Amino acid sequence: MDVRGKISLAPLAGITDTYFRRVCKWFGVDFTYSELISADGLYRNSKKTFLLTNFSEEERPFGIQIFGKDPEILSNATMKLNELLPDFIDINLGCSVKKVVKQGYGSALLKDFRNLKDAIISVVSSTRLPVSCKMRLGYNVDKGVKIAQILQDCGVSFIAVHGRVATSLFSGKSDWESIKKIKENVNIPVIGNGDIKTPEEALSLWEESKVDGIMIGRASLGNPWIFKQVKDLIKNGKYEKPTLEERVNVLRQHYKLATDDGKKKENIYIMRKHFHWYLKGVKNIKMFKERINRTTDYSEIMEILDRIEKNG
Questions:
Q1: Are 191 and 159 in contact, with CB atoms under 8 Å apart?
Q2: Reaction catalysed (predicted)?
Q3: Is the Cα torsion angle 32, 37, 39, 45 positive or negative in sign?
Q4: Residue 95 backbone dihedrals phi, psi, to 5 degrees
Q5: Would you name the residues annotated as active-site residues?
Q6: pTM as predicted
Q7: 162 labelled ligand-binding
Q8: Mean pLDDT calculated for residue range 273-297
């Protein structure tokens, strides 16, 4: 799988589900990842966990991201994922949420290189699919290169590097100089990630760091246009921002996709956060938000969107 020159959607737990990923594909994202999936849950054949692996053909190239620490469990989970035929398998080495790290998962694996190697090799040796890793810079910024080289030596095909240390969550600035240094010291493709808020920043950071590709996460929330905008900026030196009409229309299509035209009531709750993201900054949006947060009626939601569009 060639990731050079490509833009990917970062995996975000509870957000980048199959519906959002498909919307991003409409606007040119090159490849996507599943949400964070527990290897332990796959090992136990948890139905809830396996639901997170669902994807559609239009999302390809698509990777399933897992987290875990036990080599045997990771190997078992990987063999089960092989049957689902994703395009690649990704190992999460970047999640710094306390409850994840406390159990030794995510960025906690970056503390002990021996355990890290065992975990990565267990996945690589259990599949013919490309294996990637999404990593942070470790617990010390100077360890980033060493970690990346370990992953390369273990047979990882490419890495996505978030430019923060494991303890910083999203505080401070993403260190793209360290990402650049990693790129200069490994032979596998490196994808840069962190603090890309605008197409201009995406292009600037991409060019300055010399990474092979970029990954966009939080900046895509309510703004799937950003992938097309980056590509337009590269190709034409300019891009267009969506009008209110376009924002409402894509949100409407997102609702239809996620709720199956209102049949999947449970997904109406999930869509509330997307409503807020898509329409952030719209005039008089507060009263519409209050209505959206109260209703589970699909027809009413469509009527609210129509009113927002007309009032714009």
A1: yes
A2: a 5,6-dihydrouridine in tRNA + NAD(+) = a uridine in tRNA + NADH + H(+); a 5,6-dihydrouridine in tRNA + NADP(+) = a uridine in tRNA + NADPH + H(+)
A3: negative
A4: -65, 125
A5: 95
A6: 0.94
A7: yes
A8: 94
Q: Which two tokens stand for residue 87?
A: 């395009």
User: What radius of gyration do the chain's Cα atoms show?
Assistant: 20
Phi-psi category of residue 127: left, alpha or beta, with phi > 0 → left and psi -120 to 50 → alpha: beta
Is 104 annotated as a binding-site member? no
Q: How far is CA 28 from the centre of its chain?
A: 15
Note whether 255 and 296 are within 8 A (CB). no
Distance from C-alpha of 173 to C-alpha of 156, rounded to nearest angstrom = 27
- The rounded distance, in Å, linking the Cα atoms of 38 and 48 is 10
**217 assigned binding-site residue:** yes
Phi (first) and psi of residue 131, to 5 degrees? -115, 130
Domain ranges for the chain, please list them: 7-236, 244-311
Specify the pLDDT at position 283. 87
Please tell me the distance from the alpha carbon of residue 218 to that of residue 228, in angstroms, as a whole number.
Answer: 16
If you average pLDDT over every residue of the chain, what do you get? Answer: 96
- What integer is the mean pLDDT of 105-121? 95
User: Residue 134: which H helix or E strand, with range?
Assistant: strand 131-135
Q: Which CATH architecture has domain 7-236?
A: Alpha-Beta Barrel (3.20)
